[in-house]
Write a structure and sequence with these properties.
The complex is a heterodimer of chains A (355) and B (515).
Chain A (H helix, E strand, L loop, with lengths): L1 E5 L5 H25 L4 H13 L2 H26 L7 H19 L4 H30 L3 H21 L34 H18 L1 H11 L1 H6 L4 H28 L10 H11 L4 H25 L4 H22 E5 L6
Antiparallel strand pairs in A: 1-2
Helix pairs in contact in A: 1-13, 2-3, 2-12, 3-7, 3-10, 3-11, 3-12, 4-5, 4-6, 4-10, 4-11, 5-10, 7-8, 7-10, 7-12, 8-10, 11-12, 11-13, 12-13
Chain B lengths: L7 E12 L2 E12 L3 E5 L6 H8 L7 E7 L5 E3 L5 H6 L2 E4 L11 H6 L12 H15 L14 H14 L4 E5 L7 H16 L3 E5 L3 H7 L2 E6 L2 E7 L5 H9 L16 E10 L8 E9 L3 E5 L6 H9 L6 E6 L2 E2 L5 H6 L2 E4 L3 H5 L6 H5 L10 E2 L2 E2 L1 H14 L16 H13 L5 E5 L7 H16 L3 E5 L3 H7 L2 E6 L2 E2 L3 E2 L5 H8 L4 H4 L1
Parallel strand pairs in B: 3-8, 3-9, 6-7, 7-8, 13-20, 13-21, 16-19, 19-20
Antiparallel strand pairs in B: 1-2, 1-4, 4-5, 9-10, 11-12, 11-14, 14-15, 17-18, 21-22, 21-23
Helix pairs in contact in B: 14-15
The chains are: A mainly alpha (355), B alpha/beta (515).
Amino acid sequence: MIRFVPRERTPVWLTVAVSVGAGLVALLLTAIPLALSGAPVFTAFALMARGAAGDGFALAETLTRATPLIFTGLAAAVAFRAKLWNIGAEGQLYAGALATVVLGAGLVEAPSYVLVPLVLLGAAAAGAALLLVPVLFKTRFGADEVVVTLLMNFIVLLFVQMMLEGPVKDEMALGWPQSAPVLDEATLPKLVAGLRLHWGLVLAVVAAVLLHVFISRTVWGFRIRAVGENARAARYAGLPVGKAMALVGILSGGLAGLAGASEVAGLKGYLTADLSPGFGYAGIVVATLANLSPLGVVPSAIFIAGVFVGADSMSRAIGVSNYLADLVVAFSLLSVLVGGLLTRFRIVFVRREPA
Amino acid sequence: MHPDPRPLVLSLSGITKRFGPLTANDHIDLDIRAGEIVALLGENGAGKTTLMSILFGHYVADEGAIHIADEAGRLAPLPGGSAEAALAAGIGMVHQHFALAENLTGFENIVLGTQSLWSFGLGRREARAKIARLVAESGLAVDLDVPVARLSVGEQQRIEILKALYRDVRVLILDEPTAVLTPQEADGLVATVRKLAAKGLAVIFISHKLHEVLALCERVAVLRGGAKVADRPTAGADRATLAELMVGRAIPQRERPPSTPGAPVLSLKEVSVGNPGQRDRLENASLDVRAGELVGIAGVSGNGQGALAGLVAGLAAARAGEVTLDGQRLTSADPAGRVTAHVGRIPEDRHRDGTIGALSVAENYVLESIGDPENQCGGFIRRGDIRVRAAEMIRAYDVRCPGPDAAIRALSGGNMQKVVLARALEGEPRLVLAHQPTRGLDIGATTDVHRRLIAARARGAAVLLISEDLDELFVLSDRIAVVHAGHLSPAMEAASLDVRTVGLMMAGHTAGEAA
């Protein structure tokens, strides 16, 4: 018989070990369908590793893919810390991307040291505004934010498509539904010439550090943690529960909006309706794998990005579907959720006497 | 000593149970004879619950054996780890929290689970006859044909006991049976238990109310730290000796020095809180709590204490009437406003309302005051200062914990309550609200809470104590008011009251009727 005994305290190494272990277990589990499909398992994993980090180019590609995942991972981490279940990062990302092209594609003309901050701020504000609606619905009327944020994703995506066919449409794009390109002054510079890697990565890492400091060192970060851990006791102690929730909404939506700005202004240069292959949802996995720690989000996002990039490369080389990457991501989430049991409980085996 | 002529019905020998490094039960022997009423005394964590769980088959003992008398009176070993076997062998238990289906009638609850699936509807008459006989024998009169949700707590308890008797128990375990009863109901229960014992039922009475143990039980077994430290007749024992056996040291006497109350700090004038449909509400309640005075609120829980505590703590606003604190009108629900108005608040449920389990001892200590200049600078938390002050608090309040950074959920209830107390009494509050401040605490921690409340009163604070424990109220209060079904009696001088009067008022009689 197995018993779960609650732990009084969880050492930090164990939390890290569980996250790393979950990633490894996910890769191991993926070997099963890989073998079933007849592919050479070890070759496949070797190709995947090489595709993700085999050379400078591969690594740069992984980090480029990790950039939006860090932003959406942070968005999920800060929201989930406060038990605000924001499933709408995908929509907030598109809202940020739309704000980026609205502000950055000619509406405002200014030098880049003005325009880049303006574009980033606008994108963050758009994402934040989008999440504030469900937060207010939650605090005022008790509406379930999971449902509202999830459904708003579809509304936003349809709205973006409408805008791409209309006001922000690029007249030079021969009828393709894409936006006008952002001005050079609104573009985030490349980090290394010739690679796709851009300054968005630096912004994302800085955002992770700032969020970590904010959550752990500031009064409002304390209030957010308190509300997230026990909203009843926080209210009893006189903490401003509603304001803390609104602040979480602003932070989480704003970070997701920055993911959109970074993709448009740093990578693509314009907006299309297929800008994000589900970065908003993948951010939830990234945050969970990082145990909701802002600093942990960075390696966690790089791992998930590496899986995607590596799987792409492997599927080209040996003809296995790159859906395998989604499988690894799904297995990671399941493994880390199971692994979470280990951080909260000690597992004790007891021999049961025959009755 | 001459041998007891009554036959043994239950014999525990050498029961040992370990949970990791903790020995919850350490070679406990306990014999119980037919018709005997034995008290099982012990503080929280002494091992009472573990022992009863082993007896009931929820746990399996690591060592030791249980023997129980069969129909013919021969002792036979009871297989461990099986609740069915325990029930079949005639062990019955009435838990502190009842296990009744609230939408079924008393009759249905009693027979529930005793009838075979295939004979539904049959045997009703026999069941009726048997219950009628049990009621006549035990004196447990109760309406069996209304849903139990409509019965009072005391009546529900009678159903629980009848349920056990209906299953022909030979050993009945009563877990803190008087905790939810008015004194009169408790007297009724004592009479019933005596009657049942006289017919040969063995009773194990778990309680921490020493005077009840002394009045009802002929023998008392005391557990401390998992071991049985005493097993003696109650004759010749008094409360002080039993308390010392439980705690393992002498208990300091609580002293309440006289004090001259000043001006009212908290004043309620015809205040109503909550919907008229709720039971836990206040209707036209008036009360003054003066500086340097401790006012106790007695009542069976759920009769308006929650509404009163919520009002004072700032969770609820008055629907009608006037509430003033130091002459200032309180109009809205505003917990933060109560903090700034120097109201120290000790909530009823320290896990749910009083602490945030995942945060550290230090963080819980500054939960209310995190925005104050001594705790933050420019929005950043002064972590070093807070840790130092928390360490001082840990010393001053003797909080047993690994340190200020330990998660507070790792602390025992008593130590957790000390942190809540330290936070509530920080900055010498004008008014202290203590709602069930000693619930679930052991004698040592309870004494500590009492001492702190008396000290707050001595320095001139107004203290409002809401409690279900009449002993606590009589020891600490200058004046006592009783709340029943939302109606608050006038506060009366505690010295002029007796337990009987307060008990009648708790059951809904007015002061005039009760006197």
